[in-house]
Amino acid sequence: MQMLAIDLGKQSFHIYGITGDGEVVSRKVSRAKLPDAVTKLQPQSVAMEACASSHHWGRVFEELGYTVHLIHPRFVKPFVKGSKNDAVDAEAIFEAANRPTMRFVPLKSVEQQDLQALHRTRDRLIVQRTALINHTRGLLAVDRRAKGTP
């Protein structure tokens, strides 16, 4: 098998691939059985939509010796056929990953993800601080107008 596409979920994942004989492999796999299922199919590469957990699974599959391709979700969306479900998403990831001009997201290390989480937390705190300051100014402005002060 050349490539195996995986649609990541919380408790279960959907895998999709085509064997050398042309047989379509499309099935649901539990979280605990995912590494074994991938090892059993022995693909040359694994493709997933890029998200926080895809970096974790990407590192797991790289340790097992597979080439990992992460695709930004906006590049997968045009390949979704019909109503959205896990099987359709896995097939869309497969189709997108096999495009010769597809751009992939680099796999992040644990340290890179930690640093990104730190930056995002800081940004969120800044937004919340600004919102609180603006809210307080609004309340104080209402109080001044009620007392007749300009």
UniProtKB/TrEMBL annotation:
<protein>
    <recommendedName>
        <fullName>Transposase IS110-like N-terminal domain-containing protein</fullName>
    </recommendedName>
</protein>
<dbReference type="Pfam" id="PF01548">
    <property type="entry name" value="DEDD_Tnp_IS110"/>
</dbReference>
<dbReference type="InterPro" id="IPR047650">
    <property type="entry name" value="Transpos_IS110"/>
</dbReference>
<dbReference type="InterPro" id="IPR002525">
    <property type="entry name" value="Transp_IS110-like_N"/>
</dbReference>
<feature type="domain" description="Transposase IS110-like N-terminal">
    <location>
        <begin position="5"/>
        <end position="140"/>
    </location>
</feature>
